[in-house]
Amino acid sequence: MNRSKETEEILEETGKIYSRYASGYDRQVAWLSLGVQQKLRQYAVHRLTLQGGQTVLDVACGTGLNFPAIQAAIGPEGRLIGFDYTAAMLEQARKRVEQQGWQNVTLIQDNVMELELSQPVDAVLCTLAVGIFPNPRYALERMISVLRPGGRILIADCRLPERLYGFLIHPIAKRIARRWVPDVNAYFAAQPWHDLRELVSEFGYEERFAGIVYLAWGLKPNE
Questions:
Q1: What's the alpha-carbon Rg for the chain, to the nearest Å?
Q2: Rounded Cα gap, residues 152 and 201, in angstroms
Q3: Can you tell me the distance from the alpha carbon of 198 to that of 146, in angstroms, rounded to the nearest whole number?
Q4: Does residue 63 contact residue 93 with C-beta atoms inside 8 Å?
Q5: Contact 7, 134 (CB under 8 A)
Q6: How many CB atoms lie within 10 A of CB 107?
Q7: Phi, psi of 152 (to 5 degrees)
Q8: Which residues pair with 95 in a beta bridge?
Q9: End-to-end alpha carbon distance in the chain
Q10: Region 165-178: what's the mean pLDDT?
Q11: pLDDT, tens digit, for every residue of 10-47?
Q12: Which of 5, 36, 131, 133 is the most buried (most CB within 10 A)?
């Protein structure tokens, strides 16, 4: 994919944001989300229905907050690949891996728009990041491309709830998001679940936490 000027600007700004907050990221998101983010991560891994010994790609893995739940599901015989654009975030993930003594983790720094792996994986997880990508649909296509046929992908991210009380939540959600995303309006305008529906089989969708968060999943069609 040829990078446009807009894509380059989004990637550059994203890198700056997460480099700035990397060292304190875990504490900040725990406080700002009142613990909801970690519950979402655990639930997302549960929904991914992992099995022992599987290989999992965690896209936009950040500091590795998904890692404990993934490791509990795949066991030491499985393999976890953490993929992120920001070196500072991956450095925090590396510290987490070393502290836990995990021997089955590989960390990769790269742009998801250029995602390639030497071997297919059994599952792909992407939490709280799809809406930030310069081209969410293309990013999904890249993620699905590294899945084995029948492999499962799950994305989870924030959205503006359409329920009756939504107008009360929208300004709060936007204010919080400004800390983490280059363009708040573009982030909430993205609806990657519609793209995922067109790209997978056995599509599923669910909203959690008063409709502020969505999860969408499906299987890579057999070739």
A1: 16
A2: 10
A3: 17
A4: yes
A5: yes
A6: 17
A7: -110, 140
A8: none
A9: 23
A10: 77
A11: 889 999 999 999 999 999 888 877 778 889 999 999 99
A12: 133
